[in-house]
Write a structure and sequence with these properties.
Layout (H helix, E strand, L loop, with lengths): L6 E9 L3 E8 L2 E10 L7 H14 L1 H4 L6 E3 L7 H12 L3 H7 L7 E3 L12 E8 L4 H10 L4 E9 L5 H10 L3 E7 L2 H5 L11 H15 L2 E6 L10 E3 L2 E3 L7 H15 L4 E4 L6 H9 L31 H10 L5 H8 L10 H7 L15 H12 L8 H7 L27
Parallel strand pairs: 1-4, 4-5, 6-7, 6-9, 7-8, 9-12
Antiparallel strand pairs: 1-2, 2-3, 3-8, 10-11
Helix pairs in contact: 1-8, 1-9, 3-9, 5-10, 8-9, 11-14, 14-15
Length: 428
């Protein structure tokens, strides 16, 4: 049986010249996570320590979730007003999918402890940007658009079990220097204790904060994320709370992270998503014009399992992510090119017919818990595909395109939409 724990405690953060080690306790059971950095300056300066404490707060949720404790004791951790807002949202909304899947109501969690923060003003160069890189179309487009505009380096988080080969091959094509962090999760979490609750955590928030640590340690003035507009769209509403698999990539999360970082190191340092006011269709259009990446990029999550022996060597062609990437690229890449890239054709696979219906907003279920676009984006991509001669023989696509009713049109989604914190000097 799984029972909720009583208390999750933040025991302390240890910092050396190249490592961060977060220590936690769940009803007295210790957990520890270590991150080792390569290619940056020492982590021991006051400003770096200050932002590392933010990472420590959010990273703890990977272990909090094991027991979903009713009380959280932040102890002597420097938190601050903005940091507490970020932590509260990360626990309740960042763990929203976890809460929904496990039927755990986290609004009753009591958060106690935590100290005020000190303010530091690190010396950073605004034109030096660190770009977290995941090897998919979003980060490839960000890197491409910033190339020649700022002095850019990639930030890659690798597991202790070794690097992700598709990501490394894609990164190599950029020709940019790499700053790396190796994340060592506590073995107790990886082994899968039957008494633990399991589920999605706000990992992109953790990666963003690790990138901030690395950037400030190297004197860089910004972190450029690759989270587009529709990442803010929820999957569903449960117990009067929006549940968003991509909460970490949302506009709300971006603002909370940026505010919490400013609280510690001031306004000179920038955290912003280059793609914030862009659609997945706009991203797909630009990616289609970057053929050097077409046969190396990977977005299928089965390539990124923590255990190296569980990683898929190719696109699986069966998951919602493979289906979605095919769908948004099909208006811009030829059918034969897509088939060469994926070694399959998910859009015409009858076993994925219901998944496709769900992506375009007419399925029996909500938008899948994956990093996919909103139903309008998918529906408009489908409509455009149905007009292309090379797909004219696929009656299932034509029939499905007649059923969708998006609120916008295709060309509208190729224009900027919504707010953005991208500084002017990042733009061409």
């Amino acid at each position: 049986m799984k029972y909720r724990a009583e208390v999750f405690r933040y025991v302390g953060l240890d910092v050396t010249s190249d490592t961060l080690t977060g220590n936690y306790e769940l009803d007295g059971r210790p957990f520890q996570e270590t991150v080792t950095f390569e290619g940056i300056g020492p982590l021991t300066t006051p400003a770096v320590r200050a932002v590392a404490q933010l990472w420590y707060l959010i990273a703890g949720l990977s272990y909090y979730k094991a027991g979903a404790a009713k009380h959280v004791d932040l102890g002597t951790t420097p938190v601050g007003v903005k940091g507490r807002k970020l932590f509260d949202a990360a626990l309740r909304d960042g763990l929203g999918e976890f809460s929904y899947r496990n039927e755990l109501y986290l609004d009753d969690v009591v958060i106690e402890g935590g100290f005020e923060v000190e303010h530091y003003a690190p010396l950073v160069e605004p034109s030096h940007v660190l770009t977290p890189f995941g090897g998919g179309i979003d980060s490839v487009v960000t890197v491409s658009q910033l190339s020649g505009v700022v002095l850019q380096s990639l930030f890659i988080v690798s597991p202790a079990s070794g690097v992700f080969e598709p990501l490394e091959r894609t990164a190599a094509i950029t020709g940019l220097p790499i700053v790396r962090a190796r994340r060592s999760l506590d073995p107790q979490i990886l082994s899968g204790d039957e008494t633990f609750f399991n589920g999605h955590v706000p990992v992109t928030t953790m990666v963003t904060l690790l990138a901030v640590v690395a950037a400030i340690a190297a004197g860089r003035g910004a972190v450029a994320m690759s989270n587009e507009h529709s990442a803010s769209a929820p999957n569903l509403v449960w117990n009067e709370r929006e549940i968003n698999h991509q909460w970490s990539k949302s506009w709300v999360a971006e603002e909370l992270i940026a505010d919490a970082v400013r609280e510690r190191v001031g306004n000179e340092f920038v955290v912003a998503s280059y793609l914030r006011n862009r659609s997945e269709l706009w991203v797909a259009k630009l990616f289609a014009g970057l053929p050097q990446y077409h046969h190396v990029f990977r977005s299928c999550n089965r390539a990124f399992a923590q255990a190296s022996d569980q990683r898929a060597a190719n696109w699986c062609g069966q998951c919602d992510k493979c289906l979605f990437i095919n769908l948004i690229l099909a208006p811009f890449l030829s059918r034969s090119t897509l088939r060469d890239i994926f070694a399959s054709e998910p859009l015409t696979n009858p076993e994925l017919a219901e998944s496709l219906r769900t992506l375009v907003g007419i399925g029996v279920d909500h938008k899948p818990f994956e990093c996919v676009g909103d139903p309008d984006e998918s529906a408009l991509a489908l409509r455009r595909i149905a007009t292309l001669d090379e797909w004219a023989d696929e009656k299932s696509i034509a029939d499905l395109a007649l059923l969708v009713s998006p609120d916008r049109d295709f060309d509208e989604l190729l224009l900027p939409e919504g707010p953005s914190h991208v500084p002017p000097h990042w733009l061409r």
